[in-house]
């Protein structure tokens, strides 16, 4: 027998809420509110496994009113297997002390335990009336949707955590390779000047080390700034000017009129190009660079070509900056190619698809 249309609507609304939700608590509240409104629950609570590895659940979100849910529920091994790792809802009557402590205050005459599968967590609810077969089927479907939403939210968190960790590693590598060395040199020259204040050569080396450290810090700070509104071409012109002020001659070539990009794609593109120019400046010892920008059919090609020392081997292997550029290109649905060889410079090209009207 098919569930009523109102129940089918609940499934659709829950699915849309899971797609729109940004955070896990927001996602959970939307699904729990739909359960309460559609199935007539007094209160519904989502519990997730705690971080300490014990067979315990901690409250994440709740919907409904009239009963205060527990913050934490502790299970023995058998109860954990039934309540959290099971595959079917459990209907508890009276206090249900054989499974776990009562989750509500004041206690409910009956309450449901809905496992979300794969040990993701459980929904515990106090129904206002008997749950029939049709409502039970809808409850399981809503639980499946919520479980899928939790799994997706955790995957997004892991992706964000991995991206953040990669960014930290890249910054750590830059600090080690550039900033830390410049500061170590500055400290050594300061010690030399304390013993011989008239050493002009040491004074010159100190000024150079401080200037280099300042340049690295300034490069990182300006590289984190998103391009301002006004189109891609002005953002590329500003990027060329920024590096020209630091001593790298950059020439902009290509189409005078460039297509508009969605803001996240434009940000990713400018940061990839900024990283490529920074590599040409710091690692390739380039004197000049060319920033190319032109449209090829339904694609936009942005590239940085320098006259630096170049390198051999697999591009990006072991270099955090190049790995990050590849990740940003992938996030913008583009591709990154790097062509380089010792003595003939490097070309970094970002190929982006253009949205069709």
Structure, described:
- Helices cover 48% and strands 22% of the residues.
- It has a 6-stranded antiparallel beta sheet with strand order 4-2-1-8-7-5, with helices on both faces.
- By secondary structure, the protein is α+β, with helices and mostly antiparallel strands.
- It is built from 8 helices and 13 strands.
- It folds into 2 domains: 5-158, Beta-Lactamase, CATH 3.30.450.40; 227-357, Heat Shock Protein 90.
- Residues 1-6 and 314-318 have low confidence and may be disordered.
- The two termini are 44 Å apart.
- It is elongated, with a radius of gyration of 30 Å.
The fraction of residues assigned to DSSP E strands is: 15-25%
CATH architecture of the largest domain: 2-Layer Sandwich
* Main pleated sheet: 6 strands, antiparallel
Query: What's the helix-strand series?
Result: HHEEEEHEEEEHHHEHEEHEE
SSE blueprint:
Layout: H1 5-20, H2 24-39, E1 41-49, E2 56-64, E3 68-69, E4 72-74, H3 77-83, E5 90-93, E6 104-105, E7 110-115, E8 122-127, H4 133-195, H5 200-223, H6 232-245, E9 249-254, H7 263-282, E10 288-296, E11 299-306, H8 320-331, E12 335-340, E13 346-353
Parallel strand pairs: 9-10
Antiparallel strand pairs: 1-2, 1-8, 2-4, 3-6, 5-7, 7-8, 10-11, 11-13, 12-13
Compose a concise summary of this entry.
This protein has helices at about 5-20, 25-40, 75-85, 135-195, 200-225, 230-245, 265-280, 320-330, and strands spanning about 40-50, 55-65, 70, 70-75, 90-95, 105, 110-115, 120-125, 250-255, 290-295, 300-305, 335-340, 345-355.
């Amino acid at each position: 027998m098919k569930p009523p249309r109102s129940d089918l609507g609940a499934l659709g609304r829950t699915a849309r809420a899971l797609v729109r939700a940004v955070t896990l608590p927001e996602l959970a509240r939307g699904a729990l509110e739909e359960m309460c409104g559609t199935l007539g629950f007094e209160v519904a609570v989502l519990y997730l496994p705690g971080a300490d590895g014990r067979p315990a659940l901690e409250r994440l979100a709740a919907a409904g009113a009239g009963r205060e849910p527990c913050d934490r529920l502790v299970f023995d091994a058998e109860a954990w297997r039934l309540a959290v790792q099971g595959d079917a809802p459990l209907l508890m009557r009276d206090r249900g002390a054989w499974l776990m402590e009562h989750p509500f205050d004041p206690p409910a005459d009956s309450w449901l335990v809905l496992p979300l599968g794969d040990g993701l967590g459980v929904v515990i609810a106090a129904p206002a009336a008997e749950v029939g077969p049709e409502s039970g089927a809808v409850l399981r479907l809503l639980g499946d949707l919520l479980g899928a939403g939790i799994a997706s939210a955790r995957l997004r968190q892991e992706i964000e955590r991995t991206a953040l960790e990669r960014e930290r590693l890249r910054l750590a590598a830059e600090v080690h390779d550039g900033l830390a060395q410049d500061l170590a040199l500055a400290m050594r020259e300061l010690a030399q000047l304390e013993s011989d204040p008239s050493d002009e050569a040491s004074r010159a080396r100190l000024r150079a080390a401080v200037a280099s450290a300042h340049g690295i810090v300034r490069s990182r700070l300006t590289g984190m700034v998103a391009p301002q509104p006004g189109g891609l071409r002005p953002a590329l012109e500003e990027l060329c000017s920024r590096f020209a002020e630091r001593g790298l001659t950059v020439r902009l070539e290509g189409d005078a009129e460039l297509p508009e990009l969605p803001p996240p794609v434009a940000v990713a593109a400018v940061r990839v190009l900024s990283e490529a120019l920074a590599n040409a400046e710091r690692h390739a010892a380039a004197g000049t660079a060319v920033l190319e920008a032109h449209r090829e059919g339904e694609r936009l090609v942005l590239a940085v070509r320098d006259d630096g020392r170049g390198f051999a081997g697999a591009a990006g292997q072991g270099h955090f900056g190049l790995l990050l550029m590849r990740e940003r290109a992938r996030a913008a649905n583009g591709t990154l190619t790097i062509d380089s060889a010792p003595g003939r410079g490097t070309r970094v090209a970002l190929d982006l698809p253009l949205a069709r009207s």
